[in-house]
Amino acid sequence: KVPRHLFLDAGLDHLAYLDRPLPIGAKQTISQPFTVAMQTHLLGLKRFDKVLEIGTGCGYQTAILAQMGMRVFSIERQKSLFMIAQKNLTALGYHAPLLFYGDGFAGLPKFAPFKGILVTCAAPEVPAKLLEQLAIGGKMVVPLGVESQKMVVIEKRGENEFVTTEHGEYKFVPMLE
Length: 177
Ligand code: SAH
What we know:
The chain is 21% helix and 33% strand. The chain is of the alpha/beta class.
């Protein structure tokens, strides 16, 4: 239901439905559809759950979460992409996701806790402030590593009780301060 080609430059139309990442400007990429599906699946969320995305990019993953009925908050650190995502999501009628221009490492303490936190760029280590903003019973899905990444799911079972599982190797653009 989410038309991926409308999140891309018109010149990439013919590649939009292949299972591969593509450039979106500012040296960033739209994630491969399989990766979007896998991260969304690992979050294990349902309708009306509150989710925080780090790395809005062009807004494609944001739209998927909104389409599934979640209450989406998303942070992007590059102004040009933040504006593109706003334009794309508004044009497609997704008015509900709240987009923020800022640093994902800081999260959105004002809106915490979140049932899910989805990091769509490679974090060198688990961002501590994001763990604090996770609801008990919630999950963070984060690609961890520098050269290549392990997809890690951290489930918050109690204030200081976390269960971590690994879900394969991926390659993401880096999460930058
Ligand atoms: N979710 C996007 C993926 C975009 S790629 C999609 O659906 O395709 C990852 C994005 O993370 C890039 O746009 C990059 O600018 C952004 N990013 C990198 N470091 C960040 C940070 N510290 N805070 C927020 N966004 C960040």
